[in-house]
Amino acid sequence: MSEAEVFAPEGGELSARERLYAQAGQAREGRRSLAAVLLALAAFGMVLSVSAWQVTGEGTALPLLRSALASLTDIDQFVAEHGEALRTEAARSEGPSDVPGYPLPVVLDAAEVREADDAALRTLLLDRSAALVYAEGLEAFDRTGEQAIDRLSVEGLLELAAGQLSSDTHARAGAAAAVFAVAVAMLGAMLGALSEGWSRMRAPAAAVGLGGVAAAGLSFAAWVVAGQIGGSDAFMADLRQVVQAGLSAGTRNGAIVAGAGLAAAAAAWALEALERRAAREPGAAVEEAPLEQEGREAS
Fold it and tell me: What is the tens place of the pLDDT at every residue in 119-156?
């Protein structure tokens, strides 16, 4: 049943003015629903982009890259086979130089190689490798410019995951987070303006909360799926660590936004209920007064 039918008088039709008010109310409700959906989507995008920005920051990305690159470069075997030769060569030379046979074009100074045992050399190589990949992405592995990676292969999965831990991705995620945050603020204000009473608080909070629920749910589902990839393969275990660390940030941030939004919506509902209860109590007292007066007159 339409809103016009609800308010139509029995056996008659709405006047032109009443039809105009009904149409305006329906249009307002349509705009309100659209604003709520857009706000939930903006909150969803904001959570995911903020999570990506956090994970791709240097403080988080570099340790994850070191872990992934340890398997990708087979660093332990490389140091065991070439460590002594590198120290011998460093003893005969000065200044920085490339590391022959290493899959990344990292540069080490002869003085630091001469004084490094295998453990220290491993740390040096991983630190320089992580910094290089963070700056250039996995293109740093392609010295010829002709390398092609199948995105459905293990190498392709690594490019999709660890390759996103870069300064470029960090900048893009930060820009996206800023855009979504502005959209959340504007759509929240619009939805509040289209609402009435406590719905001005409840409707935007609920929409943001639902966006957080969607982001947390999607991130957690992807985290579970990622955990099933690769089985017991050591290389894939390191890849899973990188992927799941990023997805965990989405789950955590989504849960925080969902909790805050839904708590604010619940608070608005509770405050509205208290306000209605307080408004009814004085009215009840006023209704009882004439009855008491009639009783006194009758006595």
Answer: 999 999 999 999 988 988 777 766 544 444 444 455 55
Backbone φ and ψ of 262, nearest 5°: -70, -30
Task: Quote the number of domains for the chain.
Answer: 2
At 295, the amino acid letter reads G
Task: Give the span between the Cα atoms of 232 and 3, in whole angstroms.
Answer: 61
Q: Is 166 helix (H, G, I), strand (E, B) or coil?
A: coil
Q: What type of residue sits at position 269?
A: W
Nearest to 253 by CA among 55, 110, 48: 48
User: For residue 149, which phi and psi values (nearest 5 degrees)?
Assistant: -115, 125
Which token pair is 224?
């579970």
Residues 174 and 265 in one domain: yes
Strand locations in the chain (E): 96-98, 107-109
CA distance 204 to 201: 6
d(CA 123, CA 140): 19
Is 108 in contact with 40 (CB distance < 8 Å)?
no
Q: 190 and 92, same structural domain?
A: no
Segment 219-258, tens digit of pLDDT: 999 888 878 776 666 667 767 777 788 889 999 999 999 9
Last residue of one domain, picked from the residues 161, 196, 230: 161
Please name which of 10, 129, 156 lies closest in space to residue 74, comparing C-alpha atoms.
129
Helix (H) or strand (E) holding 288: helix 234-298
Q: What angle, rounded to 10 degrees, do the helices at 58-72 and 234-298 form?
A: 140
Residues 287 and 227 in one domain: yes
Taken as a whole, the chain contains a residue count of: 299
H/E segment holding residue 196: none
Owner of token pair 């639902």: 210
What is the phi/psi pair of residue 97, to 5°?
-160, 160
Q: Where are the beta strands (DSSP E) in 72-200?
A: 96-98, 107-109
